[in-house]
Design goal:
The protein is α/β, with parallel strands linked by helices. It folds into 2 domains: 2-222 and 440-500, Rossmann fold (3-Layer(aba) Sandwich); 225-427 and 508-554, Rossmann fold. Helix content is 42%, strand content 15%. It is built from 22 helices and 16 strands. Strands 1, 2, 3, 4, 5, 6, 7, 8, 13 and 14 form a 10-stranded mixed sheet that branches. The chain has a 4-stranded parallel sheet with strand order 10-11-9-12, sandwiched between helices. Helix 7 links the parallel strand 7 and strand 8 (200-205). Helix 3 packs parallel to helix 19 (438-456), helix 8 (223-244) packs across helix 9 and helix 12 packs across helix 15. The structure holds 1,6-di-O-phosphono-beta-D-fructofuranose. Residues 84-85, 87, 178, 207-209, 254-256, 315, 389-391, 432 line the site of 1,6-di-O-phosphono-beta-D-fructofuranose.
Length: 555
């Protein structure tokens, strides 16, 4: 422990994560039980061909059976990587892995590859010891071994992975990542079996975005803590808005594509407006429609004397607006085809002169009608998957600009005589490395332990899984699900690819329906809710509460 430790951090080191009862036993008393063969969610035939060795494996769950356990007790060498964006709880997955491995055999080893998947390719690693791990237990961040966004997807990369992992005598690799990283974990598991390398691969569901969930995975880790941090901040701003009564706060919230974070924060804080990208798409709303919706609420509140408000905007919104999505797709294609030349262009003027004439008429019109700052952001570097980096597009500013223009028009027509003074915010990085809530601290530690149990059960191509998360440790069930079970085939960059299906907000499910039933009331009245900070100590109603989304989904 060093002088940089805050008092909270010191207290958190002492926290012992709670485990689901089925795995909180001596390992020799834990029995792996298997269900029926499984099927992928769609495209079963094609997936069977892509994954001949790993497709259709059964779901595994662990049972406590005194003296009748099936967990093998030999020495294990396990490698681990953190992949993609940070999410609170990652350190506890590693703590669970470490403790689980030592419980299996005191000579077992955990090796962390540094900086994400590229750490394996570069053979950049560190051995994880109790002393090394201790200051990271129950803390936020991925700084223990750092993360990265390199994709492991080609046969050459897989071969290199096998070579490096074998050079460390690794028995299993644990990939802590989102849908893309776990998709690639499934491909790697298949490759290693096909090429007869005795290295297992186990995935762990991570992402604050909450879009790695399905019938089997109730939620990815990190969503709980990140939403609680953002909801605290929004609740504080809402109180300020209602005190000063002069600002409209436009708050963009992270979430690369799905709007789960915005929806959860809306349920927590009851803002005047919350846009949901999935609804925008399903109703084919244009930028103009969205602006009209915003201005409608602003005008109505103004007529009632409330020239202030809170609007939540999901980060991924732009890609759900049909004209913006079409524009972004065209720009992506032009950039992909002309990457080298484009990199030689020196400034925005040159770049937009190059892009604009290559766009279709409609896309060019949309592009030209955007403020130049947004045009510039649309032309910025793509991520390693070729996607525009939505976190760098100031959608909240775009909507403020559009609303201001529209309100001026309305004012000229005598339909708006209030004031509109906007403030913009973006909450994303504020939550990704927060100290994990008890929910995430427990969940992640359990995922780490579960991953070890899956490894020592000889499984590969599985994701560690804990179910019944809202039921308390006695009702929870830890086990494993085959990665192929969550897959279908999708078109990615012009090619058909096997992928774990991303979960977008389901407009027919309870969380959205609950929000929809309330939003008109929240728009006109001022009914803000102030969740306050995450509580780590105190009454269970505060320390053990899961997200409203999870509660509604599980009802
Ligand atoms: P993951 O899907 O990798 O977990 O990342 C989530 C996220 O936080 C998104 O919400 C956001 O768009 C993105 O990462 C930003 O990441 P970066 O800072 O690397 O651009």
């Amino acid at each position: 422990m060093n002088d940089l430790c805050s008092n909270l951090q010191k207290e958190r080191y002492a926290y012992m994560p709670k485990l689901p009862e089925n795995i909180a036993a001596d390992f020799q008393d834990i029995l792996a039980e298997y269900g029926e063969p499984t099927e992928a969610i769609a495209d079963q035939g094609e997936l069977k061909k892509i994954f001949p060795h790993t497709y259709g494996k059964p779901v595994a769950r662990f049972l406590r059976r005194k003296g009748k356990g099936s967990i093998k007790s030999g020495v294990l060498n396990v490698g681990v990587i953190l992949s993609g964006g940070q999410a609170p709880g990652g350190h506890n997955v590693i703590a669970g892995l470490f403790d689980g491995l030592k419980k299996i055999h005191s000579e077992s080893k955990l090796i962390g590859f540094l900086g994400g998947p590229s750490g394996i390719l570069k053979n950049n690693f560190t051995g994880i010891t109790e002393e090394f791990l201790a200051p990271y237990r129950n803390t936020g961040g991925f700084d223990i071994i750092a993360s990265g966004r390199t994709k492991l997807e080609t046969e050459e990369q897989f071969a290199e992975c096998a070579r490096v992992l074998e050079s460390h005598s690794i028995n299993a690799l644990v990939v802590i990542g989102g849908d893309d990283s776990n998709t690639n974990a499934a491909l790697l598991a298949e490759y290693l079996l096909r090429e007869k390398h005795a290295i297992q691969v186990i995935g762990v569901p991570k992402t604050i975005d909450g879009d790695l969930k399905n019938r089997e995975v109730e939620i990815s880790f990190g969503f709980d803590t990140a939403c609680k941090v953002y909801s605290e901040l929004i609740g504080n701003i809402a109180r300020d808005a209602n005190s000063a009564r002069k600002y409209w706060h436009f708050i963009k919230l992270m979430g690369r594509s799905a709007s789960h974070i915005a929806l959860e924060c809306a349920l927590q804080t009851q803002p005047n407006i919350c846009l949901i990208g999935e609804e925008v798409e399903s109703r084919c709303l244009t930028l103009r429609d969205i602006t009209d919706q915003l201005c409608d609420v602003i005008c109505k509140r103004s007529e009632a004397g409330a020239n202030f408000g809170i609007a939540l905007i999901p980060e991924g919104l732009v890609e759900f607006i049909p004209e913006m999505r079409a524009l972004i797709a065209e720009i992506n294609e032009i950039l992909a085809e002309n990457a080298k030349y484009f990199a030689t262009l020196s400034g925005f003027d040159e770049q937009s002169e190059f892009i604009n004439p290559r766009l279709s008429r409609d896309a060019s019109w949309t592009f030209s009608s955007l403020p130049w700052s947004i045009q510039r952001q649309l032309l910025m570097d793509r991520d390693p998957h070729g996607n525009v980096q939505v976190s760098r597009i100031e959608t909240e500013r775009l909507l403020i600009d559009l609303a201001e223009n529209r309100l001026q028009e309305l004012a000229v027509k005598g339909k708006f005589n209030g004031a509109f003074t906007p403030q913009n915010h973006f909450f994303g990085y504020e939550g990704r490395c927060a100290a994990p809530s008890n929910f995430d601290a427990d969940y992640c530690y359990a995922l780490g332990i579960t991953a070890v149990l899956l490894i020592s059960s000889g499984l590969t191509g599985y994701m560690a899984n804990v179910r019944n998360l809202h039921k308390g440790t006695s009702g929870m069930m830890a086990g494993g699900i085959p990665l192929t079970m969550m897959m279908n085939i999708e078109q990615r960059h012009g090619k058909k690819k096997p992928v774990i299906k991303k979960a977008l907000v389901d407009l027919d499910d309870k969380p959205f329906k609950t929000f929809k039933a309330k939003r008109e009331e929240w728009a006109s009245a001022t009914m803000y809710r102030h969740p306050g900070p995450i509580q780590y100590f105190g009454p269970a109603s505060l320390t053990e509460a899961s997200t409203i989304t999870l509660q509604l989904e599980q009802e």
